[in-house]
Amino acid sequence: DVREREREREGEKERKQMRGGAMSFHLNSHSKGMRTRRLLTRSSSRFNLKVNQDTSKKLVRVDRVNAIAEPELLDLPKAFSEAAPDASPVLICGQVSHSLTKEREEVITSMEDFMTDKVYKYLKPVEKCWQASDYLPDPSQEDFIPKVQELRERTLALPDEYLVVLVGDMITEEALPTYMSMLNTIDATRDETGSADTVWARWTREWTAEENRHGDLLNKYLYLSGRVDMRSIEVTIQNLIGSGMCPKTENNPYLGFMYTSFQERATKVSHGNTGRNAVGHGDQALGEICAQIASDEARHEKAYQLICEELYNRDPDGMMMAFADMMKKQIVMPAHLMDDGVHTTRGSGAKLFEDFEMVAMNTETYTTRDYIDIIDYLLKRWKVESIVCTSESGQAAQDYVCKLPNRLRRLSERAEKRMKKRQKQPVKFSWVYDREFLV
């Protein structure tokens, strides 16, 4: 009895000492039916893990890679992943997380040569990349002020609805730190040190570096135009980066690259339409800027889609289930958590992104039809209908995604009829100095 009480006291003392920290983990079933957890990490140092549950807190100390924690200390919420039914993921903050199985992790790690030989070429050397200053008045030249004045005169013709869409596109690009953070949550491909020399880590850093120019250029152009409230925009950017994003990719590269394959094409479509609209409003220079950004997105789109194509070649069932899972969840736009701090306090109380999305649809910058067309494009791009899946889950996923575009088009047609009957509401956007227009 004395020894038993001592063990209890030691266990309680140990649990009290464990605070904070975070790491990924993977659930396994014990051979005798006991619930154990195999912890997955890439470091041999000591960690602390705090797992929050709805009704209690269980605190676990993790000592080494692949350590087996005592089952009684790991009474964690179970989770299920439709993208990986054979995995044992966990819930972190209510999100299904770490659904990559060991077998599929091996598929990803086996693709390093493929990344080097086939994908890496879609990034350009820095010396061959355009920079923001190539498209802006040069402050070192005597004609700087006249050039800025020309820019300001051109942008006078841009309507407020167009400016809201352009600002929204720019804010989306400026939240780049969030996207790099998201990519570095993905198991088997993340940059483990911040400067790792793996092809996956180099890709993430250099893709981020190329993307960084987009927000930089649009931000400066809008600043020089004088047409928008830069402080409100900067507040929105800071709020968005602070809020992060929720793509529901489960730290799973199959889901992550499915998301980026779709999203890069969506961004290309949006920037392309923004550019064409700029030309229509008389700003040829802005049209060229948007077209250049869209061209970058097109290169990046091809790279991510090539990765998914290779995953289909190596693991058709796994990739098919990932495709279907992301379609069921729906692809959320990267800036869906944008907030200027005032938008929801007035008018209808709608979220800023919801009203921005409506303006993008009204100006035909990015619409429901575009969303469906991207799904259709990916089905054809990967020849999804002709892929041979051997598992029941894979076949069911294939049937779902192949029928999805037609199903969504029927729903979209009914939604468009309702939208036409809807009475537009006056909305103020802080980005354009609270000027009001109908949405």
Descriptive notes:
The chain has 439 residues and is mainly α. Helices cover 54% and strands 8% of the residues. The protein has helices spanning 2-17, 102-109, 112-119, 144-155, 160-174, 176-183, 199-225, 230-243, 253-280, 284-314, 316-329, 352-362, 368-381, 392-421, and strands at 25-29, 35-39, 47-52, 57-62, 90-92, 95-97, 426-429, 435-438. The strands form 4 sheets. The chain has a two-stranded antiparallel sheet with strand order 1-2. It has a two-stranded antiparallel sheet with strand order 3-4. α5 runs antiparallel to α7. The N and C termini lie far apart (73 Å).
Annotation keywords:
439 residues, mainly alpha, two-stranded antiparallel ribbon, two-stranded antiparallel sheet, 54% helix
Short description:
With 439 residues, this protein is mainly alpha-helical.
List the helices and strands and how they pair.
Blueprint lengths: L1 H16 L7 E5 L5 E5 L7 E6 L4 E6 L27 E3 L2 E3 L4 H8 L2 H8 L24 H12 L4 H15 L1 H8 L15 H27 L4 H14 L9 H28 L3 H31 L1 H14 L22 H11 L5 H14 L10 H30 L4 E4 L5 E4 L1
Helix pairs in contact: 5-7, 5-8, 5-9, 5-12, 6-7, 7-10, 9-10, 9-11, 9-13, 10-11, 11-14, 13-14
Topology, number of strands: 8
Shape: globular
- Let me know the largest β-sheet: 2 strands, antiparallel
Strand content is 5-15%
Radius of gyration: 25 Å
Order of helices and strands: HEEEEEEHHHHHHHHHHHHHEE
Mean pLDDT, to the nearest integer, reads 87
The percent of residues in helical segments reads: 40-55%
- As laid out across the biggest beta sheet, the strand order is 1-2
| End-to-end gap | 73 Å
| Low-confidence region ranges | 13-74
Number of helices: 14
Overall structural class, as computed from helix and strand content, comes to mainly alpha
